[in-house]
Amino acid sequence: MKNIRVIAFDADDTLWDCQSHFEAVEKAYCQILSPYGDEAHISSELFKTETANMPELGYGSKAFTLSLVENAVKVSGGRISADDLLRVEMLGRSLLNIPATPLEGVRETLETIRSKGKWKMVLFTKGEILDQENKLLRSGLWDLFDRVEVVSDKTTRQYRELCMTFGIGISELLMVGNSFKSDIEPVLRLGGQAVHIPFEVTWAHEVTDEYDHEHLQRIKRFEQLLEVLNLSPALSKGEGDVRLEV
Predict the structure, then answer these.
(1) Which residues contact 55 (CB under 8 A, 6 or more apart)?
(2) Nearest CA among 182, 179, 120, 178 for reference residue 151
(3) Taking the model in full, what pTM does it have?
(4) Phi and psi at residue 45, in whole multiples of 5°?
(5) Is the dihedral of CA 219, 221, 222, 228 positive or negative?
(6) How far is 28 from 102, CA to CA, in rounded Å?
(7) In whole angstroms, what is the distance from residue 76 CA to residue 173 CA?
(8) Shortest CA distance to 167 belongs to which of 120, 126, 124?
(9) Any residues with CB less than 8 A from the CB of 79 and at least 6 apart, and which?
(10) pLDDT tens, position by position, 33-65
């Protein structure tokens, strides 16, 4: 970690719970559409609609809401009532106000890293900018970051541009996140460092094959990031939650 100058943090399902709220909305959505198919069918068709819309709509609650409405019309063959469409729209809108309460250990860990003054800290997330900024405000974590970057997607190009923004090389970037597909793999491909903190639920679009890498470390709890950064005493023998591979 001695070469790291910037630490980038994912937001949703890394700093606060997001996916479980989407899953709760999807379950309620399937109940509304139950006259037109079972839950597995409705969810499968919704995922197809979401995936087809991503090139134009991107990610986030607003894109998801548009896909909910479009899919409802498709699945029902146009038979869904205006009242039920309004219920669908309100379900999607509710995602704009999820609590964004920091997960256990997040605030304390970020405060400790910030207090050292050794690294620049950036929130690097994808989605719709107003939605993501509002979640960050509700979380109360905004002031712990030097910069907030919301991008349409997390590709190698976006990671290169992030490095250019801070005037660093990719080897000086550490990315921390829950999604192997979005937070980890692009950074590893470029030659950067990454810390993977899997969340308890994963969006189907983020599922991908995972692998070990010499620049990758895996932890189970957010506060174990302090161990990765050599800011806390070493774990006691037998508490092998951290895989230090660098």
Answers:
(1) none
(2) 182
(3) 0.87
(4) -70, -35
(5) negative
(6) 25
(7) 48
(8) 120
(9) 36
(10) 999 999 999 999 999 999 999 888 888 899 999
Instruction: Transcribe the chain into DSSP letters.
Output: -TT--EEEE--BTTTB--HHHHHHHHHHHHHHTGGGS-HHHHHHHHHHHHHHHHHHH-SSHHHHHHHHHHHHHHHTTT---HHHHHHHHHHHHHGGG---PBPTTHHHHHHHHHHHT-SEEEEEEES-HHHHHHHHHHHT-GGG-SEEEEES---HHHHHHHHHHHT--GGGEEEEES-IIIIIHHHHHHT-EEEE---SS--GGG-------TTEEE-SSGGGHHHHTT-SPPPPTT-TT-B---
The token pair that represents 90 in the structure block = 């309100």
214 residue type, one letter: E
Where residue 241 falls among pLDDT bands split at 50, 70, 90?
Answer: very low
Give the count of beta carbons closer than 10 Å to the beta carbon of residue 67.
21
Q: Which amino acid is at 162?
A: L
